[in-house]
Amino acid sequence: MNIGGQAVIEGVMMRGAEYVATAVREPSGEICVKKGPVNSLGSKYPILKKPFLRGVLSLGESLMIGMRSLSYSAKMAGEEEDDKLSDKDMAITIFVSIAAAILLFVVIPTAAAKYFPTDDPFYMNLGEGVLRLAIFLIYIYGISRVKDIYRVFQYHGAEHKTIFAYEAGVPLTPENIKKFSRFHPRCGTSFLLIVMLVSIVTFAFLGWPDLLYRILSRVILLPVVAGISYEIIRFSGRSNNPLVHIAVLPGLWLQRLTTKEPDESMIEVAVKAVEAVIVQTQENTIKEYDAKPSFAQALDNN
User: Fold this and answer.
1) How distant is the alpha carbon of residue 43 from its chain centre?
2) pTM of the entire structure?
């Protein structure tokens, strides 16, 4: 079973094909775990599992699940009742975050491109993409220096190490998990970097309309860019080609900023999350097996 994850506030979210679990360490020191079904649209509409479409679906579902997990962790990690975010506060925070991302990574780069020393639309789009990438790297570096974000990045490292240990089939103990790398090829950081690079190539051929159309085109084409990027990172995770591994190295290098070495208490939280997904999946499999009629029952029914 493939398992992915995400670091949240004082915790880790782990997701399998059917179930998702978020483990958070409360101020009291206890670890609380919330789990539930994924309910992917891909199960209802198989066409969404086709290449490129599955990337758009994965991005959308990951954002929704990630936001719910982040909201849950914010509520559980608050030391005082007044510190805990309400659903309304979280909705406002998410809206402001999306608006800020569009301003920082879309509006500012494309508006600044008019100051480039060229009138060629291709090179203006190319320069805009390079500027967007530079802003992204500076942003990642900047937030990695913030104390509270540093702890989230430690949980990010715990998530990666635990997934590596699970994939290796070793017992999920802190001693075993600490031996594994905190740099994982399927990390969202690597995905975001690929998105940036693919967008540079994609947008370079769009011409140079007015500012509003440029902003709209970048936002509207994001699902296309995400679909292409997903297929690239999916292929790189399955390929043993040395050239492919070299191509994904920049994403692994970037994880030096977005993942930090966790302590044992953080690893313990990540283990609780992944075990919840495994146990819930096993229980569901047993229920489905028990619900099927035996061979003798099938004969009797006939």
Assistant:
1) 20
2) 0.85
CB atoms closer than 10 angstroms to residue 149: 16
Phi, psi of 214 (to 5 degrees): -65, -45
d(CA 174, CA 167): 15
CB atoms within 10 A of CB 238: 9
List the one residue out of 294, 280, 265, 237 whose CA is nearest residue 26.
265
Do 10 and 155 touch, CB atoms closer than 8 A? yes
| Buried/exposed code over 221-237 (b: 16+ C-beta within 10 A; e: otherwise) | ebbebbbbbbbbbbebe
pLDDT tens digits for range 250-287:
988 999 999 999 999 999 999 999 999 998 878 766 66
* Phi/psi of residue 97, nearest 5 degrees: -65, -45
Give the CA count within 13 Å in the CB-facing half-sphere of 138: 8
Which residues share a beta bridge with 13? 6, 22
CA dist 225 and 106 (Å) reads 14
pLDDT digits (tens, 9 = 90+) for 29-63: 999 999 999 888 888 889 988 988 998 898 888 88
pLDDT at 83: 56
The CA-atom distances, in angstroms, between 125 and each of 32, 199, 263 are: 47, 10, 44
